[in-house]
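Key result, reporting period 2: structure in, sequence out.
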């Protein structure tokens, strides 16, 4: 006689394994747990890249500030055809400049214009000697300079004006009347210099971008906030179009 029978109970059936229902429930539970863990890991990785990106922009802003201090308070130029293009001008003031200018979420090199997840590429002709001519120099970057600050006075500018931000090109002059890009992955790069808000309005950090301000602060902004920034130091946003 078993213990169960001795105490008035019924013998337990001999079960050699899980039923189909129990196995199905277990598989669903494991799958859900895996999905949760993977999602949490991806969020941690994304947040880590967002913080690294902010650090890169802070270093660029500090480098531009140091450049201005040593050049009579004047900011560098915005374009490669200018002798003091910001990429070359601030590089001596930024440690590991070639890696600092790349956002961790946009490290892949594009052919020319970047996108939300690819860095822009600029080809420069650098003189070597009178006999050897020129050699090509490739510059890659994930950030853009506020073109309105080109050669501007650092002292006279407001500390809340944007300086550097996540961008598909090396510079831009956004206007409050610029339209929203139809494709937030590609942004809106125009050679005719219109709608340049689209250079910054990209889906790089889950609907947000990082922006370094002239005063040294770095802010993580939703794309809609781009239309409220004082890009040129004059406009106040009354003519803003509907932002994303």
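The corresponding designed sequence is given below.
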């Amino acid at each position: 006689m078993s213990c169960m029978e001795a105490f008035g109970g019924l013998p337990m059936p001999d079960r050699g394994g899980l039923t189909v229902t129990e196995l199905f429930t277990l598989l669903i539970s494991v799958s859900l747990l895996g999905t949760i863990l993977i999602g949490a890991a991806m969020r941690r990785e994304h947040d880590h890249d967002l913080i690294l990106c902010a650090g890169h922009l802070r270093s660029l802003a500090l480098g531009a500030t140091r450049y201005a201090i040593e050049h009579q308070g004047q900011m560098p130029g915005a374009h490669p055809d200018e002798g003091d293009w910001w990429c070359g001008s601030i590089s001596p003031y930024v440690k590991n400049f070639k890696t600092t200018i790349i956002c961790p979420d946009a490290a892949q090199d594009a052919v020319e214009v970047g996108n939300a997840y690819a860095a822009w590429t600029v080809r420069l002709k650098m003189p070597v000697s009178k006999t050897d001519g020129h050699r090509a120099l490739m510059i890659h970057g994930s950030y853009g300079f506020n073109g309105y600050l080109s050669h501007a006075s650092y002292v006279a500018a407001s500390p809340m004006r944007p300086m550097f931000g996540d961008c598909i090109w090396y510079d831009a002059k956004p206007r409050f009347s610029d339209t929203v890009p139809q494709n937030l992955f590609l942004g809106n790069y125009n050679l005719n210099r219109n709608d340049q808000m689209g250079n910054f309005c990209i889906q790089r950090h889950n609907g947000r971008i990082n922006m370094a301000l002239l005063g040294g602060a770095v802010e993580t902004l939703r794309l809609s906030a781009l239309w409220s920034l004082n890009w040129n130091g004059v406009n106040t946003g009354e003519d803003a179009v509907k932002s994303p």
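The first helix runs from residue 3 to 6. The first strand starts at residue 108 and ends at 109. This case is discussed further under Risks and Mitigation.
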